[in-house]
Amino acid sequence: MKMLVVDDEREIRDYIAGMPEWADIRCSVAAVAANGAEALALARDIRPDILLTDIRMPVMDGIALAEAIRKEQPELPIVFLSAYNEFEYARQAIRLGAVDFITKPFVAADLVWAVKQVQQQLMTEWKHQEAFFVLFGGPADRDEEKLAWLRDRNQPDEPFILLYGELDTVAGAAGERSPFRERAVLAAVMPALERSPVPYWTQGTNAGLYVLLRGSGIDPASLQEEALALAKQMVELGGAASELSLSVGIGRAEPSLLRLPDALRQIAECMEYRMLIGKRSVIAYDAIRSIRSEKDRQLLLSTNRLEELLRIGDRDGIADALREAYRTMLTVGAGKPDIQHFCINLVEKAEYVMEEFGLSIDPKDKLRIREKLLSSVILTDMMRDIEQLLQGCAARIGTLVEQAPKRLVAETKAIIGQAYEDELTLRMVAERLSVNYSYLSRVIKKETGKNFSDLLWLTRIEAAKARLLSEDLKAYEVAYAVGFKNYAHFSLLFKKVVGMSPSAYKLHASAQRDGGK
């Protein structure tokens, strides 16, 4: 390999150029330069295999050099050297496709290791196709440009399967999201890639590695088998590496490279589903497809049920309902955004119910629980956190609901939640609670600001929202199913509460689901 070394300090240039270690890995320093302008001219002449460049230099710095040289030699590996360990440089290095970012002072082994990685990639015909992923991951209106890119490189538009190996780390955790963490993933899974009989392209991310298996001349079934075998090897090799836990998502077999945007969305769903099954998992997109309307309906029903239990301070019921919600999520294939939305919605419900009872939650605790839920990647962790919150709220509410009038209101709402589908009147509820119905009416109005009928209708509307998400029910069928006797009254009340008609709500929910696929 021919190297071009660029640094404005002569001592460093001479030191790197004279390192005896280069001979051991069959590399040579073809030229040295004192600034980016000199290096750019030399690069056009010698066409180096790798560029080692300082960042802060006179005339033209390393970032400007990389930007200029990328236009002429887009696949040239670049290693940045800098005495300034600042995030801004790292960010720009990532954008320019740097293979490493080494801070001064450095030792010879740092440079040799970085160059050996590039060398091994070339020797094993590893192709780090950043340009391909950037272009083909873009919108369909660039399809002609994509096909021209393939023709210019004598590459066919071929079937493929996309894999993605990602570190099982908590998003944003200190020390876990290094800009060059992909190196650890690549080093761990490289033996599996070298043994793969299927040609591939790869692209790194902050926390993982895409592997695109190219399927020309391979039948889809065999390509899928190879993808699954490779994914399992990647997980095993990642697990064998020190302190490295890796999960792999597998997209569907696609007939054309133009389908890369769809494959990327499939991978995103796979990695979201990882929180349901834990670390070091292989997640195939075909295995997690489910009816999204059923998922949405079930999650909404679970939320409403937990809210009812919270109002009466039923701690045992909350624990049982959360376990049932966990099983529901596994059954319907809820993804990470669905589960986070479910948990955050429960937090908001808990805060709302607490306010109804005149109880407060520390603002710091409100922020803390949201941060934990949004940073968790494993479902069991999220369910543990949400159960702790709900149990704490239920304990405080339970103390109050034992006392009238809050107890009467809570029990009234519980009865409504259980029997809203039936013919239900204030007098019937009062008889069940053994209180005068006029007194109960006054208590409800004083404590909630609403009449009994308002509470009943609102409960029915919430139930109707859940049922409308089921595709096999029409709006008028839903109205009668939740207890309304007159569809016109239901439609008018639904629009007043929700802001749109039942039919419009159903279409809106369907459009949101389709847009998320």
TrEMBL record:
Organism listed in the record: Cohnella hashimotonis
Pfam families: HTH_18 (PF12833), Response_reg (PF00072)
UniProt keywords, alphabetically: Cytoplasm, DNA-binding, Phosphoprotein, Transcription, Transcription regulation, Two-component regulatory system
Localization: Cytoplasm
Full protein name: Response regulator
Residue ranges of domain Response regulatory in the record: 2-119
Sequence ranges assigned to domain HTH araC/xylS-type in this UniProt record: 410-508
Major localization class: cytoplasm
InterPro entries (UniProt xref): CheY-like_superfamily, Homeodomain-like_sf, HptR, HTH_AraC, Sig_transdc_resp-reg_receiver
Modified residues (4-aspartylphosphate): 54
Keyword set includes DNA-binding: yes
